[in-house]
Amino acid sequence: MQGDRRGPVWVVPAVVPAVVPRSARFTEASWVARYRRIAVGGDLAVALLGVSAALVTRFGGQISLGYFVLGAVLPIAWLACVALERGYESRYFGTGPEEFRSVLRATVALTALVAVTSYATKSQVARGFVVLAVPLTCLGAMTLRWLLHRAIANRRFVGRCMRRVLVVGHDEQVTTLKRHLEERPADGYVVVATCLPRGVAAPEPDPDSERLGRAEVDILAAVDLYGVDVVAVAADPELAGHSLRRLSWALEQRGVELIVSPGIVEVAGPRISIRPVAGLSLLHLERPSVSGGPHLLKNIFDRVVGGGLLLMATPLLLAVALVVRLTSRGPVLFRQTRVGRAGAEFTMLKFRTMGVDAEERKAELHAVDEGNGVLFKVRDDPRVTRVGRHLRRFSLDELPQLVNVLRGEMSLVGPRPPLPAEVARYAIDDARRMLVKPGLTGLWQVSGRSDLTWEESMRLDLRYADNWSIALDLLILWKTARAVLGSAGAY
């Protein structure tokens, strides 16, 4: 197929050039069946444990026959709810948060099912039993999914449990999609071949010809040749409409998944929806939440949680302040002007980790700058005090920024607070990161910190500004603890 240039499409091997027997695809996919067995068996086990714990806690040794029956039926109903909420679909295994959402939706569905059944049959189900059994089952199922995700992610980083992908489209789009898929091995996609259109157009194009039909034949031949599990179409205008529909039918018969990339990058799933209009499936892109109710909720969340954290951290703050004061001369706090939401400047607070002459000595260190081209960073900065190195390693120097959060100048989660000199160098697109308040932590904190390039740091900030949500904030706060304890990129 690679040598035949007469057809409209040819296949270029990308990772695995050797011919793979079709039977190998089932060997590669055997992990899916094992994953599903563990998920179903684990859900049944945690449901039985949750129900048993609820029965013993609520009734002790006096459990009636009716509750024994209910305790036997509830785990089966739990499995049915998870299945109806697509919790056992292979496309979600080990990829993204959809499995966790399925468990949460199943929890709500099971609670509603118990309530409706109890009302319809006029049976008095003890609320204490339901309040214990359902949340315990949900917590156990979420923990199980997290362990499964960690286990499969570890295997994928060494090339196991991967879905073999054939990418179809034009050269630039194929290259972009291939790069994005390979940047995140934990998602489980490995590109084994690409299918590209011929660069020379037909001399007499005929709208009624079977040119796209022959392309489909070539794609299907590549599917069989390379034993792929997924065909990814990269925004190819020549493979759309009815042609794409016919391709999906043919792939369905082979048990191969079809995914289509619309070419939209750095947009989170909640902002994208498919809406049927006039018989067409149209991709609708919601506007980012930059004002109104969502931001009011974020402000309330920041003030309440930030105030609680500041109260709990008060003894630690006092201890760090005393150590800084006793180990080096100069003020305890370092104050610096930063730029917040909509370009408003504010004074950011940190514990001082350098000597008082740090700014004067900065010029002599430019030759050993290890920053990202915009931010000045030196891994073994001689200006940092002995205590300051420990404070930076665990990000304790940033705790006073909780005061900035209470003032409303910063958020718990957001883009990194920039200096005025950095903002002056922003391109037009970069200014979008100013739509939200800067954060005490953010995507940059959990993705490499000072090890990131300027472009990577800006990309993460823009992604957050366009796609932020309370759920994303909670996820980042949870990941921040791991990043801080690991001290990766902290210097």
Spell out the key features of this protein.
49% helix, alpha/beta, 491 residues, disordered N terminus, five-stranded mixed beta sheet, globular, two-stranded antiparallel ribbon, single chain
Structural features, described:
This protein is of the alpha/beta class and 491 residues long. The protein is built from 16 helices and eleven strands. A five-stranded mixed sheet has the order 1-3-2-4-5. A two-stranded antiparallel sheet has the order 6-7. The protein has a two-stranded antiparallel sheet with strand order 8-9. The longest helix has 30 residues. The chain is globular. The two termini are 52 Å apart.
**Which parts are unreliable, with pLDDT below 50 for 5 consecutive residues or more?**
1-28, 199-214
Mean pLDDT metric: 78
Shape: globular
> How many DSSP E strands?
11
Strand content: 5-15%
- The rounded distance between the terminal residues' Cα atoms is 52 Å
